[in-house]
Specification:
Number of domains: 1
CATH architecture: Alpha-Beta Barrel
Shape: globular
Structural class: alpha/beta
Protein name: Metal-dependent hydrolase YcfH
Helix content: 25-40%
CATH superfamily: Metal-dependent hydrolases
InterPro entries: Metal_Hydrolase, TatD-like, TatD/YcfH-like
Number of helices: 9
Largest sheet: 8 strands, parallel
GO molecular function: hydrolase activity
Radius of gyration: 17 Å
Order of helices and strands: EHEHEHEHEHEHEHEHH
Strand order of the largest sheet: 1-2-3-4-5-6-7-8
Organism: Haloferula sargassicola
Keywords: Hydrolase, Metal-binding
């Protein structure tokens, strides 16, 4: 009864003809629920169609921070008509990415400000819909994107819960998210041999405050690192984290799935 709380089934790395097989392999491996996330307006409809075609798959809608330069000024208005769609279980993936350089025609200051502006707007949309939010943060060094996203979250925490997905920071940052009522989510990085600190954080976050994810097609877990990832491999991540926490996979699957059900609300 595992849940992949974050995957990208509409990614170009997953040809549409393969999606049914991906979902089938996941179910065979005990992954009964999957949340696929849009990253731009162009893949909004494909994600909705995938959710319609596959029971147990829901989607989130939003604009990834690396795509904000393509987003029109009325992008939030374009997302709004989908809020009541039962296939939609959350808002995102949104957030702040200070790792990738500003695209052509933008300077770094303006690009980051546009990301912060849209993250704030996504929080407003989530509050309007009664849904929760999925946040991406990434830096070249340090944790400026995390701290900026946390500051924006702090302004909205009374109305919206957020999950900081693919969490790879230290325990103090995890606690800062938990203190606001938010969640963190662990993926393939927690299995990497050079990321023992991430696994250590995963052992300390209380049950009910974190979820599992693949972020597929990215970040395949060890021993598949470097390969195209897929939702079935959340089982590999679960085995590693359960072992480190001293839990059975069944115990970990039960509480992380319940956490996902509570957070996304429409995935039961």
């Amino acid at each position: 009864m595992l849940t992949d709380s974050h995957c990208h089934l509409a990614s170009h790395k997953f040809p549409r003809g393969e999606v049914a097989a991906l979902v089938s392999r996941a179910r065979e491996g005990g992954v009964t629920r999957m949340v696929t996330l849009a990253t731009c307006l162009d893949d909004l409809q494909p994600n909705l169609e995938i959710a319609a075609a596959h029971p147990g798959v829901k989607c989130c809608i939003g604009i990834h921070p690396c795509d904000v330069h393509h987003a029109p000024q009325d992008v939030i208005d374009q997302l709004r008509p989908h809020l009541a769609d039962p296939r939609v279980c959350g808002i995102g993936e949104t957030g702040l990415d200070y790792f990738h350089p500003a695209p052509e025609g933008w300077d770094e200051t303006g690009f980051r400000e546009r990301q912060r502006e849209l993250l704030d707007a996504h929080f407003g949309l989530a509050a309007e819909a009664g849904l929760n939010l999925v946040i991406h943060t990434r830096d070249r060094s340090g944790d400026a994107s995390f701290q900026d996203a946390l500051s924006i979250y702090r302004r909205h925490a009374a109305e919206v819960r957020a999950v900081f997905h693919c969490f790879i920071s230290h325990g103090e940052n995890a606690q800062a998210v938990l203190d606001l009522g938010g969640l963190v989510s662990f993926g393939g990085v927690a299995t990497f041999k050079n990321a023992g600190d991430v696994l250590e954080v995963a052992t300390k976050v209380p049950a009910g405050r974190f979820m599992l994810e693949t972020d597929s097609p990215y970040l395949a877990p060890h021993p598949h690192r470097g390969e195209r990832n897929e939702p079935a491999r959340v089982a590999v991540i679960a085995e590693r984290i359960a072992s480190a926490r001293g839990e059975s996979v069944e115990q970990l699957a039960a509480h992380t799935t319940q956490t996902a059900i509570d957070f996304f609300r429409r995935i039961e």
